């Protein structure tokens, strides 16, 4: 995911966190805010030390999240900024579980359309 697709500054991150709407499932919390001036969506990813005590675990989860977002890039509303906060229950998830849970959380937040139950993951 290119840098232009990331919420990087502390100011932007806090703005989405404090003023955005939030939705959660057991593995992820999504904060979302509408931004009409965006040419494309921007995302911030947070995986805290409670999720994984080692950088290896945290970075693996961030790679998985970025991969799912890249796969679903065309389905994501271009006029939003959103944050993906990982909960400790996602610590031992493989790519399939991350994809399933993240797509579910993004659909609940209306970032993407709700996928069909018959859709292959």
Describe the structure.
The protein has 121 residues and is of the alpha+beta class. It has a single domain, classed as 2-Layer Sandwich (Ribosomal Protein S5, domain 2), CATH 3.30.230.10. The chain has helices spanning 10-19, 55-71, 95-108; strands spanning 21-24, 28-34, 42-46, 80-86. The chain has a four-stranded mixed sheet with strand order 1-2-4-3, sandwiched between helices. The two termini are 20 Å apart. The model has no long low-confidence stretch (mean pLDDT 88).
What is the makeup of the main sheet?
A: 4 strands, mixed
Report the uncertain regions. none
User: Remind me, CATH topology?
Assistant: Ribosomal Protein S5, domain 2
Specify the number of helices. 3
How many strand elements?
Answer: 4
CATH class: Alpha Beta
Q: How would the global form be characterised?
A: globular
Could you estimate the helical fraction of the residues in percent?
25-40%
Strand order of the largest sheet: 1-2-4-3
Q: List the helices and strands in order.
A: HEEEHEH
Number of domains: 1
Work out the radius of gyration.
14 Å
Strand content: 15-25%
The span between the termini is 20 Å
Mean pLDDT: 88
Task: Tell me what the CATH architecture is.
Answer: 2-Layer Sandwich
């Amino acid at each position: 995911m290119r840098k232009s697709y990331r919420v990087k500054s502390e100011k932007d991150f806090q703005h989405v966190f404090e003023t955005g709407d939030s939705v959660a499932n057991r593995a992820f919390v999504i904060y979302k805010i509408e931004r009409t001036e965006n040419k494309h969506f921007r995302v911030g990813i947070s995986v805290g030390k409670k999720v994984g005590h080692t950088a290896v675990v945290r970075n693996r989860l961030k790679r998985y999240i970025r991969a799912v977002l890249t796969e679903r890039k065309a389905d994501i509303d271009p006029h939003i900024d959103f944050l993906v906060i990982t909960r400790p229950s996602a610590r031992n998830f493989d790519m399939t579980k991350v994809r399933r849970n993240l797509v579910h959380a993004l659909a609940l937040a209306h970032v993407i359309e709700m996928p069909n139950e018959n859709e292959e993951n």
